[in-house]
Amino acid sequence: MSSHNLSLGRTQFGKPENSGKLLPIEEAHQLLNEWVGNDRLRLHMKQVAAVMRAWALEKENADELTALKWELAGLLHDADWEKYPESHCRVIIEKLEEINIDPELIHCIASHGPKYFGVEPETKMDKMIYMFDELSGFIHAAALIRPTRYEGLDAKSILKKLKTLNFAAQVSRDDINDALSRIDVPLEEIIGFVIEKQKNVI
Ligand SMILES: [Fe+2]
């Protein structure tokens, strides 16, 4: 991610009384368009958002409000990365606190890179964004080098590529393994899910 010290220095975010307060998805997209000029980075966040939403609905039996919370976490987790690389995560967190957003959503964003931000994933939503973040980018990189892109891309070939350390070398295999150790789902199943849910995101 970066060599800056990104540690947030705290583990409590937002206010309990804001529980359930989310921003409309259109507003989150608007914020993204204002803050993120890089198409590839915007696409990354849209992909993570789509995967998060689908996981909440299909695997966690989430209601619409909860699914929106998972989706927003995906959509906003790197919103400040391009503009504020030296205080990545801090800026988006403070923005969401300022507009009185649900503390669970803020905590989820704050814990998406425990070794950078110093915040441990606690809820299933926290654990899944940590799991999906690097993996989603890795899978997209793997799709882009194929003539048929996502068509015919399967989990087995991704598993193999993960072991090829010079492919997408910037993607931390340690983070992927650490995230995996915190949940009870096989990596192959997660990879298959990510491919399926992000392949049509544009
Ligand atoms: Fe990310």
Question: How would you describe what is shown here?
Answer:
This protein has ten helices and no strands. By secondary structure, it is an all-alpha fold. It has one domain (17-198): Hypothetical protein af1432, CATH 1.10.3210. Helix 2 crosses helix 10 and helix 3 (64-76) packs parallel to helix 5 (103-110). The longest helix is centred in the N-terminal third of the chain and has 21 residues, at 39-59. Fe (ii) ion binds at residues 44, 77-78, 133. Fe (ii) ion is lined by residues 44, 77-78, 133.
**Helix-strand category:** mainly alpha
Chain oligomer state: single chain
Shape: globular
* Ligands bound to this protein structure: fe (ii) ion
Order of helices and strands: HHHHHHHHHH
Count of the domains? 1
Report the average pLDDT across residues.
96
The CATH architecture term is Orthogonal Bundle
State the gist of this model:
The protein is mainly α. It has helices at 25-35, 39-59, 64-76, 90-98, 103-110, 114-117, 124-144, 155-163, 173-181, 187-198.
What attributes does this structure have?
58% helix, 0% strand, binds fe (ii) ion, mainly alpha, Hypothetical protein af1432, 202 residues, globular
Q: How are the elements arranged and paired?
A:
Elements: H1 25-35, H2 39-59, H3 64-76, H4 90-98, H5 103-110, H6 114-117, H7 124-144, H8 155-163, H9 173-181, H10 187-198
Bound molecules: fe (ii) ion.
